[in-house]
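2024-03-11 09:14:02 DEBUG pipeline.ingest accepted 1 chain
2024-03-11 09:14:02 DEBUG pipeline.ingest length=452
2024-03-11 09:14:03 DEBUG pipeline.predict start
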Amino acid sequence: MDTTHVNTQLMEVAFRIREMRGICGFTEAEMARRTDTTPEEYRAYEAGAVDLPFTFIHKCSLAFGIGITDLLEGHSAHLSSYTVTRRGEGQQTAREPGIEISNLAPFFRNKLAEPYYVTYDYDEAQQHMPIHLTTHSGQEFDIVLSGQLKVQVGEHTEILGEGDSILYNSSTPHGMIAVGGGKCVFCAVVISGEKTDEKAVRQSIVQARSSEDYVCKRFFDAREDERGVLQSLTFPHADQFNFAFDCVDAIAAIPPIYFHLPDHAVMQYWNDISGAAPNTDFVIYNIPQLAGTRLTVSLYQKMLENPRVIGVKNSSESTQDIQMFKDAGGEGHVVFNGPDEQLVSGLAIGADGGIGGTYGVMPELYLAIFDAVAKGDMARAKAIQNDACRIIYALCGCHGNLYAVMKKVMELREEIQLGGVRKPLANIVPEDMPQIHKCVQMINEAIGKYCH
């Protein structure tokens, strides 16, 4: 038996009894009389120092005029009128380096909001790093009790001092850190948007305080003075490091857009990109319906004069193009299928693989398609493809951009915090969540159907 879990349940029941006694206005002596115990026994029970007999809990519930399950069940809040939390007596729900969080109403029934007492320590290193952004459903209200808090909501940043407050849609990526040289204490009230596990809400507050180092810090070291003025810039191991060679497998490029360009100008553009990374393979990205320029067989044959060109990612609407590029490239060249909705068609006509945006939210289905095609089971491949297409249509059925929706789906399925998308792409709105949950359900059902 997990004694830690048992002890936690005992303390929660004892906490609820103590809180209810305070709300009802009973003294310890009066409760001892109502529960047929001595004052010393009652104090021990209420402190959680000894096991609580069932008869004692039952008599407590009668004294308070509530159901016994409201005292017994840790997940069932027992108050429906009001709850009082005295200073320093909130239920600690998170304690990590630099963070303390206490729930100020852990047992209130049918809450519309979760109030937290939050302490963020000051961290000098965080002052020079991007704020980690997180999301959850509903809205959040934060009011600073002491210290200073730097809050980022989307692309906007505010500095809050004692008595300052902020209200925002918490589906917008947000985060915060203590600033001003000292710790910050604030009250965070998370207002429900949809049914959300309290643990997930609490974890979002923990994550909101974290910071991420700049990617560029991997490649150079910048030194600043106390005013933030750049003093020096060095590149460690510059003689051994080549960004394109060490970090990039291949370059993919679409043609420049806006002006319609002749083939020789497009070819020059691609070769200029390839020439800037002469040791890196180059893949042409053909998506004429969006780029406005089509990769023709003749243009591809001219591009093949560049030894770094190894193939094409073909996202044109005609799978026939895959077959033509395969013939033109010959042995050793690869053609990737682009449109996720026609992966089976692309593989059937000769694509070597696929590169797709929705692969990230349901990789199991696409791997199952590859496996079915490889085994010649085209009926199974077609069935999986059709279900994948229906999921894609559902993903596109939100206010938010497809990639904003996919990030939220990955957060729900994999517990990966990916934030939102940058403008001009539209982020999700609270009204998108029912559709997003439907997408998650469709994905899980399809995986259960084909991948187990």
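2024-03-11 09:14:41 DEBUG pipeline.report The two ends are 32 Å apart (CA to CA).
2024-03-11 09:14:41 DEBUG pipeline.predict end
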